[in-house]
Amino acid sequence: MSSSDNPTFDIKSFANTLVEDIEKNRIRLPTLPAISLEALLVVNDAGSSMADVAKIISKDTSMAARLVRYANSPLYRGVSTVSSVKAAITRIGFDAVKNAILSLAMRDVFTTSFRVIQDRMEALWKHSVDVATKATQLVAHFPHLNKDEAMLAGLIHDVGTIPVLIKAVEYPLLLEKEANLDKVIDKLHMPVGKFLLSRWNFDPQLVEVAASHDKLDRAPKGGEVDYVDIIQVANILSYQGTDNRWADIDIRKNAACKRVGIELILRLGEMQDEDDESQFSTMLN
Length: 285
Known about the structure:
Helix content: 55-70%
Radius of gyration: 19 Å
Strand content: under 5%
Order of helices and strands: HHHHHHHHHHHHHHHH
Number of helices: 16
Mean pLDDT: 88
CATH architecture of the largest domain: Orthogonal Bundle
Shape: globular
Structural class: mainly alpha
Largest sheet: none
Low-confidence stretches: 1-7
CATH class of the largest domain: Mainly Alpha
Number of domains: 2
CATH superfamily of the largest domain: Hypothetical protein af1432
């Protein structure tokens, strides 16, 4: 196999092969846990109740524990601590529990049996959790947006990287030189993420997050702050102090930052709550 510094390496051909592999189930992609899919079917059934959803989730002790932690997280601080799945769903709200289930299922998506990309996958998950945490802090200032949706948007924004990493396992020289792999990921992760989330029937606004979060010159319809704006700003905050190219973005010149509000961003950047971030990480793992 060749790497992307070799003239015979063709990113377009790599992308076409990757999409074909996904369509024909020839690539070992992570999937949403069976218990999550079962719970989502119940949630989407108009005749279902909270008790029906609780019954399904309670069958999986790991998912049940995660949902209880979710309800007790900074997203849903309450006077008292909930300890049962039914109480957790009551606190979260039936309308929001779909996004909660998907958020909690994402940890299983960001796993791999390929040891050569395990470190990359773990780093990707850690970054996604950080972006999700920052997104929920930002979205609290925009009543037309939803905190659970922002959380999920943060977790899935880079999901298109996963199939690229898995396909790259077939190209040893591509893995050996991280700069080349990074170029391939930068080029493909948004269209692949859009393709993947569309196949998983995610809401259109979440598909748009995966498809557009790195487009620094984009403008939301109507000019109103949307989830792509929130995730773009959260990404910028997440990369501050690193050697990533996003660390060099001037928030005072970035269009999404201007829409979200420079003063708000600066204030949140100075008030990062490490305890909140730790709780979010514990909740999702």
